[in-house]
Specification:
Elements lengths: L3 H5 L1 H28 L4 H4 L18 H8 L2 H32 L5 H10 L9 H10 L7 H4 L7 H12 L3 H9 L4 H12 L1 H16 L3 H6 L8 H11 L4 H32 L5
Helix pairs in contact: 4-15, 5-9, 5-12, 5-14, 9-12, 10-11, 12-15, 14-15
């Protein structure tokens, strides 16, 4: 059915598009400045903006990016970050989806109150448990290893459990009952029925856990002492002191660190938006 308001007031619709486009340009301006600064000389980065022509680079310096690899062991930091992020994403998806499946479909006494208790831990500031957690990992001899950064993810994330549970509750219960009548076990239903239908929720959790681990700075700073085990965030922070004011190289390194997150969201945004929209359908 056609919208009579759109036919009656087409100028209003175009005005909304222009307004939204203007807001989008304002939001993209910092990223454009970051990208521009990574492709110019250091002096041009610090040059004041006096006209709109100053927003355009006078000369593109693509050699800024190879210079980053010469100034810091970028590939080593990248490998460490991929290892930590991959472990965190896998642990979060496996453990949180299993917990959410139990909360959504298993008839357990007081399961709703247990779920509320899990959600209550979201309100606990990380700084409160920072020192006890550090003491625990020190007693386990996990300091200067990747274990404190990866293994906690295999014990579930309250926010991811919430997202999975809310999405699981939106699935037709007839499918679960039919699988049980056919003799499928709980794990078979979880793996063969629930997870294939939960792709939006899976993508949403993957994006959130990936971004959280990829951009994590405090955890690697506390637990990693050896430079050979540093992640990209630690390497980028130390790079500030190494380049001695060469801001164009710092911007180039920042663009390379930011690029995987942007690409992941760009290609998976359809599932991400759908997953966020559907997680609040049932309580």
């Amino acid at each position: 059915m056609s919208d009579p308001i759109r036919k009656r007031h087409p100028g209003r619709r175009y005005g909304v598009y222009v307004l939204l486009g203007a807001f989008a340009l304002v939001m993209l301006l910092p990223f454009y400045w970051l990208l521009r600064s990574s492709l110019v000389g250091n002096r041009e980065v610090l040059q004041p903006i006096e006209s709109w022509r100053d927003l355009l680079p006078s000369h593109l310096r693509f050699r800024n990016y190879p210079a980053v690899f010469e100034a810091m062991p970028f590939f080593r930091y990248l490998l460490n970050t991929v290892l930590v992020t991959g472990g965190v994403v896998a642990g979060t998806v496996i453990s949180s989806s299993l917990c959410a499946y139990a909360f959504a479909f298993c008839e357990v006494r007081y399961s709703r109150w247990i779920f509320y208790g899990v959600l209550a831990t979201i309100m606990l500031p990380p700084a409160v448990v920072l020192i006890p957690t550090f003491i625990l990992f020190r007693e386990l001899n996990w300091i200067d290893t990747f274990k404190p950064l990866i293994l906690p993810a295999f014990f579930g994330s309250p926010f991811a459990i919430f997202l999975f549970r809310q999405f699981f509750l939106s699935l037709p219960k007839e499918l679960i009952e039919a699988a049980r009548i056919d003799g499928a076990t709980g794990l078979q239903i979880y793996w063969g029925v629930v997870l294939p239908l939960a792709r939006p929720a899976l993508v949403t959790v993957i994006i959130f856990s990936f971004m959280g681990s990829w951009n994590e700075f405090m955890g690697p700073l506390i637990y990693l002492n050896s430079q050979s085990k540093w992640t990209l965030q630690l390497g980028l922070n130390s790079f500030i002191g190494q380049i001695a004011g060469q801001w164009n190289l710092l911007m180039a390194a920042t663009v390379m660190v930011l690029l995987p997150v942007l690409l992941m969201f760009f290609f998976l945004q359809r599932y991400f938006i759908k997953g966020i929209a559907m997680t609040g359908m049932k309580g």
